[in-house]
Structures are given as C-alpha cells and as structure tokens.
C-alpha cells in the first residue's frame, strides 16, 4: 500500500511528534505519578483507544465537518474542557493519606481510568484537526483507497504514540513512587488536580486551527 520511502518518512515524523510533550503525555504522567504504574499504563491505553475514534472520523470525512463547522468544534472543545476540569476537581477533593497511614488510598478502578483516558482523547477536537492536517499528506490516491490508507497510517501513528505514553507511564510511576504517601501524597493530589484543570483551561481557550 505504501512505498518504503513514504512509510519511513511517515514513521520518522510520527515518532518525532509522539515524543514531543503534549497534553496526552502530561495526562499520563500525572496519572502515573499520583496513582501508580498500572493507572498510568491504563491511561495510555485509554488514550490510544480514543484515538481510534479520530482515525475513523477522518476516514469517514467527519473530521472535515468538525473543521468546517465552528459551533460543532466549539461544542466538542468545551465538553472536553469541562470533563478535564471535572477530573481535576475530583483529584483535588480526593482524600489523601495522613502522615500516620502506611498505605495510600486505593486508586480509581482500572476500568474507570481507561474510560477517562478514552473520553479525554475523544473530546479533544485538536486531535481530530491534527489528523486532518497530518495524515492526508502521506496518502497516495494511486495506491488504492484513501480511507484504507488513512486507517493504516492512523493505526501506525497510534501504536507509536501508545508505546511512547506507556514508557512515560513507567518512568513517571517510578519517579512518583516515594511521593504517594503521607504529606507528599497530599501535595501530589493537589498537583495532579491542578494539571487536569490547566489542561481543561488550555483546551477551553484554544482556537480552531488546521496546520
């Protein structure tokens, strides 16, 4: 479906983009630091699953509709910002252990963490616009269905991004291991909540742009 030069160029560009710190990476790092390795990995997998929706939307032409209808874009953007703000408030209000306690409070269920990762990604219209601007550059109509090429490229990009986010989760969880107890845990919960609130504010204030 793709010649080796195009595929190599795409994978190089995709890996460079995935290694660039962004909201998804920050979200995974915050989860991993405050709730541990499993929570971080599941968050990364949830974000990867949410990306499937954006890939399908681009292949079906829905991303172009999102870019062409500002009120629709703004509705999705504000819904995503509100969701991140809600996660931030929950993190701020979540009880942390006292200095006398040996164990941190149990984290949210892995199913809930996975769903939150999915929703966080799906409700970020900037991801849809990014795919709309990036993936079609590597589609060659002479090589068959454009939709099939978009799906294949999207899955390659998503796989690369998920691997990067899992590695971030592993590194962040190890760094935060000593911080998930006592007074440090209380501070960490506040920082995590603040990160989610900042991500929500960032999304709420962003303007629609296709590069």
The number of domains? 1
Distance between the terminal alpha carbons, to the nearest Å? 26 Å
Structural class: mainly alpha
Shape: globular
Write down how many β-strands occur, each being a DSSP E stretch of 2 or more residues. Answer: 0
Q: Give the % helix.
A: over 70%
Q: Please indicate the percent range of residues in DSSP E strands (runs of 2 or more).
A: under 5%
For the biggest sheet, the summary is:
none
Q: What's the number of helices? A: 9
Q: Topology as H/E string?
A: HHHHHHHHH
Cα-atom radius of gyration: 18 Å
User: How would you state the average pLDDT, rounded?
Assistant: 84
Q: Could you list the spans in which at least 5 consecutive residues all have pLDDT below 50?
A: none
Keywords: Cell membrane, Membrane, Transmembrane, Transmembrane helix
Subcellular location: Cell membrane
InterPro entries: LeuE-type
Protein name: Lysine exporter protein (LYSE/YGGA)
Tell me about this structure.
This protein is an all-alpha fold and 211 residues long. It has one domain. It contains 9 helices and no strands. Helix 2 (23-35) runs parallel beside helix 8 (146-176) and helix 4 (62-68) packs across helix 7. It starts with a helix and ends in a 6-residue tail after the last helix. The model has no long low-confidence stretch (mean pLDDT 84).
């Amino acid at each position: 479906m793709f010649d080796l030069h195009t595929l190599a160029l795409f994978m190089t560009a995709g890996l460079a983009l995935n290694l660039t710190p962004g909201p998804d990476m920050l979200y995974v790092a915050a989860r991993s630091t405050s709730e541990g390795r499993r929570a971080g990995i599941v968050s990364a997998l949830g974000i990867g699953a949410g990306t499937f929706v954006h890939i399908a939307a681009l292949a079906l032409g829905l991303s172009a509709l999102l870019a062409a209808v500002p009120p629709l874009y703004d509705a999705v953007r504000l819904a995503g910002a509100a969701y991140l703000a809600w996660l931030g408030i929950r993190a701020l209000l979540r009880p942390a252990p006292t200095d006398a306690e040996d164990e941190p409070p149990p984290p949210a269920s892995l199913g809930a963490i996975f769903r939150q990762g999915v929703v966080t990604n799906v409700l970020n219209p900037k991801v849809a616009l990014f795919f709309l601007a990036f993936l079609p550059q590597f589609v060659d109509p002479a090589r068959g269905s454009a939709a099939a090429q978009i799906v294949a490229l999207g899955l390659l990009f998503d796989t690369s991004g998920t691997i990067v986010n899992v590695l971030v989760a592993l590194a962040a969880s190890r760094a935060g291991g000593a911080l998930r107890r006592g007074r440090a845990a209380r501070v960490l919960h506040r920082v995590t909540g603040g990160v989610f609130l900042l991500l929500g504010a960032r999304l709420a204030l962003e303007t629609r742009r296709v590069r």
